[in-house]
Amino acid sequence: MQTTLPTAFCPACKRDVVLHADLDPSGAWCYGCLRCGGAVDPTENQRRNRSAKALVAMGYDIDGEAAGGGCSSGSCGCSKS
Ligand SMILES: [Zn+2]
Q: Which of 43, 41, 33, 42 has the alpha carbon at shortest distance from 13?
């Protein structure tokens, strides 16, 4: 199974960036830029999933944690209450 990460265009960075996904207090998904931390609206900014290999080609350093951890590892601050 190939690892993919959600990406979208970040207006602040002026490039496609990896998104981090979080649940806001109301339980809705919200997304932010992993580079600058700014909010990114994935529905307005062409969200699409890219493979880890493609992200490395974009200049990201994908390690095991970033590629396989995500919310399920608790590293992004998601809280399931
Ligand atoms: Zn950004």
A: 33
Quick one: which of 3, 16, 12 has its CA closest to 69? Answer: 3
Q: What is the dihedral of CA 40, 13, 8, 63, to 10 degrees?
A: -110
Question: Ligand 1: distance of its center to the CA of 64 in Å?
Answer: 22
Answer yes or no: are the C-beta atoms of 5 and 49 closer than 8 Å.
Answer: yes
- CB-based contacts of 74, cutoff 8 Å, min separation 6: none
The answer to whether residue 73 scores a pLDDT higher than 60 is: no
CA of 80 to the centre of ligand 1 (A): 26
Which pTM was predicted? 0.62
